[in-house]
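User: structure tokens for this one?
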Amino acid sequence: MSLPVPNLDDRRFQDLVDEAKRMIPSLTPEWTNHNVADPGVALIELFAWMSEQVIYRLNQVPDRLYVDFLNLLGTSPFSAAPARVPLTFWLSAPTEQPVVIPAGTEVTTAGGGTIVFSTVDTLRIQQPTVTGALTSTSETAYTDVLPQLHYDRDTVTCFSSEPVAPGDAFNLGFDVPLAGQVVELTIQTAERGIGVDPTRVPITWEVWSGEHWLATEVIKDTTGGLNQGGAVRMVVPDGHRPLLLGGQRLHWLRVRLLEAEEGQPTFRSSPKLTNLTAVSLGGTVAAEHARTVLGEVLGSSDGTPGQRFALTHRPVLPRREAEEVVVTVDGAPQTYTEVADFGASGPADRHVVFDESAGSIEFGPRVRYPDGTSVQHGAVPPFGAQVTLPTYRTGGGAAGNIAAERLTALRTAIAYVDRVTNLHPARGGVDAETVDEVKVRGPRTLRTGQRAVTPSDFEQLTLEASPQVARARCVVPDTPLDPVHVLVVPTSDRDPRALELDDFALTPELFATVRQHLDARRTLGSLVRVSAPYYQGVSVVVRLRATEGRSANAVRERVDAAIARFLSPLEGGPRRDGWSFGVDLHAAVLISLIEEVPGVAVVDELALFEYDLRNGQRLGDMVAAITLDPGALFLVGANQVVVR
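Assistant:
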């Protein structure tokens, strides 16, 4: 069997001849004789034959050289992107001295698996002390209740308005920030709040971030919303900052009464507390799918330009500040700075280029110019110099998108740390770009010229900003003064039936990456706004009959999967590249789709419902079609498939 041949240009001899003849009337209208005996037509056929030979040779170019040609034009494959997830470290017992989890601490799946995550920042776990307590009825009216809280025979009314009103708060001040901490408040109550449902309490726990109040993640509450003695355990988000409240500058944590939702009972009288203590049970810090390689010797220089050294591990993740190439010459280390290319590098510039996908580094080449001169771009390590990479990180890929509670094994024991886990799934991991994907992206990149002018330019540059971007849509502003609105759909490797609204939320890292990439390439005076699209929830109810002898359960699974895949923002639509922005959905389209599913005999009835993706319930009456705004996409909720 012969090797597959790329088909870069499928035009043949006759195609080229016909194309040239079609251009004759517009270019040389006086030329009217197009017969094969005409000398001009003979020249056309000659050049067509020569062009066909060039196309044939071009189609023999292997994928490796095709990618090399794209590299010369500044287009290189995207490296793998690492998944990220918060890791929670639990203490064996509260300790008086702080417990430090250093950056780079590695955690893996149980059993010593190959999926390794490492912490991005240093985590410091220390025990907090309640040094302030205030009740508030507005943003300016505060009452100091710390003495009553410390005195066992006294009580503190949490929400002090008469009657209790939304916005009332009970504020606790701490001497140290609680950012990233797992805090447990042990609460003793004197009186319950009257009128509230303990399972649906309209309260929220918040901390001050420096700009606004951030909600904490409550993972355990045995108090029934401050209605009985118990404990409230929460994960405090990053960025806990001090704030001046009631004349006291402390790190504040507050419980605030919310406006009750429809059908939700609220307090008619406030709960009262007799005592409250706080301890830190652990801490949470961001981690990414990566592991650190230390002290790798890449080899010795032979003194020639354009040397390339391969790393032991690949792909290589983007370098941090201390991750630099070191060349040792006669015992003296020299640091080489990473650059995107050698275009602006001189002969004395110690520069190096990383190929993240291939896992290699390259030193500057010597380039011969048309006038006969040769210029060295970037310094060349002298003969015998040792090339080392003291530290770098490797990892990334879709394999890092693991479920919650999977990362449970510390690779190195840490004093006072009992266990570790990820309370949430890891997301954001993307495999390295394939050659076929580069072939598609490369020509589009050349058309944009790395400048965002037209809507298609904005969309293509957004796709190039990060491998975590799956789709992009540019909404043209109504007036020249309005900002250009770019909608970003992130990647996800989850089953279309399991996709949720949170899977398409833009992480702060991805938002910043796209925004900076577009800001550097926009035209002068234009404004760019980056956000996620609006996702319209849809639920499909279908009643059908299965082919005789087919399993009803199997047919139901196939139909449910087909609907979810067809409406998916990532792989939906007729071309399997994602449901188009702003395209309406009609019941007749889904009926045609379902009737093609193996095992389906006939569709008896199909109805569409709008769906509340947050509350998980259908809205309104059934409809025959659902319309979409130009910047919206569908996201499937709970479908109901009845098979007879």
